[in-house]
Sequence to fold (386 residues):
Amino acid sequence: MREMTEVERKVALSNAISIIRRNLPEYTYECQDANSIDGLYKPINNIEWTTGFWPGEIWLAYLETDDELFAHVAGIFTESFRDRIIRKVAVDHHDMGFLYTPSCVAAWKIKKDAHAREAALMAADQLISRFQEKGQFIQAWGTMGARDNYRYIIDCLLNLPLLYWASEETGDAKYRDIALRHTQTCCANSFRSDWSCYHTFFMDPETGEPVRGETCQGYKADSSWARGQAWAVYGLALAYRHTGNEKYLEMFEPVSKYFMDKLPEDMIPYWDLIFTSGEEPRDSSSAAIVACGFLEAADSYEKRGEYEKARHYRSLAKQLMKALWDKCAVNKDDASCNGLLRHGTYSKKSPYNTCTPAGVDECVSWGDYYWMEALVRLGGGWKSWW
Ligand code: GLY
Fold:
């Protein structure tokens, strides 16, 4: 497969920044919805698990352009996120990292905005309040302790960097400790012998013992939801960086291979990896997430002096990016769409899953964000906020 060239990367990045700039007036005091409808995102209040991605895109645009307009708008979102966590609006779930890392941790790292730091630390406190001693995991959704929600989900690996950051920032090890314990539980249970992963995993509320894997957004319990596998790829690469535990890098390799082996010829994943050909919808966002995971791991391999592996994963990332550029990237002159990446799938109903259908073959906010992150990462020198 061909790799994205540096010229293509620059064109793609400038194209993405133009779309982000064009969207600023509509999404300054309102957030971008989780997915587009017929190619267009509608504005919403700051209530979804996904609203951190849009400010994350704006911060990335700021880093690329030094245009203070981007920093100004992203700063308005910092206040919105601070208000949300102070008033505890729709924060009864584990997605504090997705919400507060690309918005407030980014704002703190880039602008030393004290309100952003305060908000992100409150979000970290909220996240650890969902830790279950019995089973050693962060409960994803629902009433704490309820048997029908006594589970974690693979996506949570991306919420944990907020906790590593909170420990570094405060000197208090309790956040990191919970992140480590959750990661251990996740790695012990969520992967099958072929290195595909379960989307969600139930634990026993009385004994804390592992019970069973289930799906919510995947096709069925024992298939591999493409985005779940993608969260696992990036999550393991991040777990290695934050812990230095080689086991996570060792797991990263076969988990990544499983994802790559299931891709169709054009490299845009189907929404569940059980599908490898045919007319099922794709999920381009999974490819963008995996590209970021590969670039993250490549940096780690380079630091370890494993240059061949670093080259290998960087090349795979560029191949995914080339496929996304050719097949999914939105052209800045296309007024019919206000996202960056088409052909994402949020939640597709199957006869066996429990999701509420949403955003099938649409732009999805995290797909746009990780596409942008990968474009910036590929240019080199990006200081991660994850
Ligand atoms: N974290 C939920 C999703 O990826 O759809």
In short: The longest helix spans residues 307-327. Residues 155, 217, 227, 346 surround glycine (CB under 6 Å). The longest strand covers residues 210-214. Strands lie at 31-32, 43-44, 131-132, 137-138, 151-153, 200-203, 210-214, 344-347, 358-362.
